[in-house]
Specification:
Helices cover 72% and strands 0% of the residues. The protein has 170 residues and is mainly alpha-helical. The termini are far apart.
Length: 170
């Protein structure tokens, strides 16, 4: 519901301000939420999501704690390699590594990189980054609601990998 509302603003914003990363970034993020909610529509939405993410990446890869790198990398690491999705786990992982390098203190970058590593069966790297999410401190850019959601997801992923979900945090 909120993704649909947001898309009503991000589309016109992209047209009015084609050189502002924020509109392309949020458009890609909202399209991603739509795909999560309506898997059957993914075939039509993914190419649009890709285009918005690529545009945001070209304009400002550092926007929202490396958000364009995070969204595009996660997309490439998640979708099938076949057309029209054209996923690429290696390229997606490389983009997510850049996001972690650019914004190492932002836990979502570690979460999505950990997921990519887990998909690519690189368990040790996945565990290391899932642990970073579990150990992340709540703050202005990592509020308790976001932390609860992603710490729960990270712990579930760790259990699925048969790894400790209660790491010793610094």
């Amino acid at each position: 519901k909120y993704a649909e509302r947001g898309l009503k603003f991000s589309g016109p914003g992209r047209q009015a301000y084609p050189d502002k990363a924020a509109y392309h970034y949020f458009h890609a993020a909202l399209l991603g939420l739509r795909v999560d909610a309506y898997r059957a529509a993914a075939m039509n939405v993914v190419p649009k999501l890709r285009a918005a993410a690529e545009r945001a990446l070209k304009l400002d890869k550092g926007y929202d704690h490396a958000g364009p790198l995070r969204i595009y990398g996660s997309l490439l690491a998640t979708v099938p390699e076949t057309s029209p999705f054209n996923g690429d786990i290696e390229k997606g992982t490389a983009l997510l590594k850049q996001a972690v390098t650019l914004a190492p203190d932002f836990p979502l970058n570690h979460f999505f990189l950990a997921e990519a590593y887990a998909r690519d069966e690189e368990e040790d790297d996945a565990v290391k980054h899932f642990h970073r999410v579990v150990c992340a401190k709540v703050g202005p850019h990592w509020d308790r609601f976001m932390a609860q959601r992603y710490v729960t997801k990270a712990r579930e992923a760790l259990r699925k990998l048969k790894k400790p979900d209660q790491p010793t945090c610094p």
